[in-house]
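Morning, I've got a small favour to ask if you have a moment. I owe you a coffee for this, so here goes:
>
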Amino acid sequence: MSTRTKVAVVVAAPLVLAAAGLVHPLSLTTPTAPMWAHLHVALLPVFPLLALGFVVPLWQRPGRGVAGVAVVVAWLAAFTYACFYTGLDAVAGIAAGTAWRDAPPGVDRESIVGPLYRMGDALGAFGVRAFLLAVVATCVALYPRAGIRVLPGGLVLLVAGWSFLDSHVFRPRGVLTLLGIAVGFALLTALTAERRRAPAAATPYGSRTPRRDRRRRAVRSLRWRA
């Protein structure tokens, strides 16, 4: 997989979520309840795909030592994020929107969705903390290969991840947060690009260069004359 393809894969989910944030209702009300529920149904498979930002740049068999352990920690933390943040989407998004929309007239809707919000917030907060752990572990895993070049992407992801704790996808901060996550993923994934070496020119003597071949022939000629 080329580096451009890898970058495209890791930025796809945060960019889709940022676009969704532009149309996400700012509050749950009777007119916005259908949109609230339907949008979160559509986003249900998208939120866990943010975990690809930690899987793709570390797509290799974990080695030994600190870097290998960091790869495993990053993958486990990414899996934890995917599980728990999807729970936020299901509870505070789909369930709350549906409960508000279908509540009988005269019922205090706030008392119905309040517990759903609290449960969703708890699930989301745990998921984002796992996301932040995955950021740190990914930077540790990439450090032997990239050195301090992991800092720009890592710092962008840490700042964006901290904002993600309470911004969700709500505009404008949630949209900017997800754009920051896309940038951070792109920066870290770009570090995995492999430098391609030009193949050695083919010669009658194998992989040696023409200049080296001429030198060897000259030495042989001098020895023959001697």
